[in-house]
Design goal:
Blueprint (H helix, E strand, L loop, with lengths): L2 E3 L2 H13 L4 E6 L5 H13 L2 E6 L9 H6 L4 H8 L6 E3 L3 H4 L18 H4 L3 H16 L3 E5 L3 H13 L5 E5 L19 H6 L2 H14 L4 H14 L4 E9 L13 E9 L2 E9 L1
The structure holds adenosine monophosphate.
Length: about 280
Amino acid sequence: MTEILRQKPALRARVAAWKRAGERVGVVPTMGALHAGHLSLVEAAKAGCDRVIVTIFVNPKQFNSASDLENYPRTEDEDAAKLAPFDVDTVYVPDPEEIYPEGFATQVSVAGLTEGLCGSHRPGHFDGVTTVVSKLFLQTGADRAYFGEKDYQQLQVVTRMATDLDIPVEVIGCPTVRETDGLALSSRNLLLPPEARAAAPALSIAMRAMAEGLLAGGEIGALRAQAEAAVLGAGFETLEYLELRAADGLAPMTVVDRPARLLAAAWIGGVRLIDNIPVG
Ligand code: AMP
């Protein structure tokens, strides 16, 4: 049975012993409802570290809608069962007061990278992410932290935050894991009604077509309009954004003259899905 810790002192004692022994500690921060995407991060952490901590905390500060927070899947027993074969050293499921004790008044906020894309549509979201992730870095004392490229803007923001705050952790990005039909795995996929689930791969299909068009020298406005028509035609309610950005730093781009990323968010069946793919 994998050990589950819920309080800081016990976690600190564990990590201190590992560090005394000269072991490299990896952390995989999650909000639970684990799927193969999360487990790929666990696998990478196991391969790169002597000790692995998986954290599970549904962070209220990164939700900008009360109903989204309420509906977010919570499956701790299933999560523990999924982690069992990986033999991680500790699952840290902090009690809420271990993260936000009474009187908590600090916010960690990254400028620039958090503007635009998800930052425009989810006010306060990234401040919630950087606040909790900085705390998890400090509480775990991890040497390496594993994040998914699935949340590409988040990966960039967290990397910047760790650098700017001199937190001695190496942030490692891992490729997006997808269903066989191309849909990026997400805990929110569990919330999709069957019809919406069937139509959802249209987003990644349209993004791939747009990426190919861009690489073939197509004009971005026309390609974006085609992609939007395909996504809405497939049954998505809204395309929140679909943008070409620099892979490093997320500056807006119109032609692919350096490594780029197409990033999108769209609503289907009342669920907000995000995705991104490399271009070039
Ligand atoms: P979450 O539980 O959604 O906060 O995600 C926890 C971590 O898992 C984040 O670093 C995500 O980017 C990563 N993740 C989520 N979905 C995927 C996926 N399909 N492939 C790879 N990593 C993922």
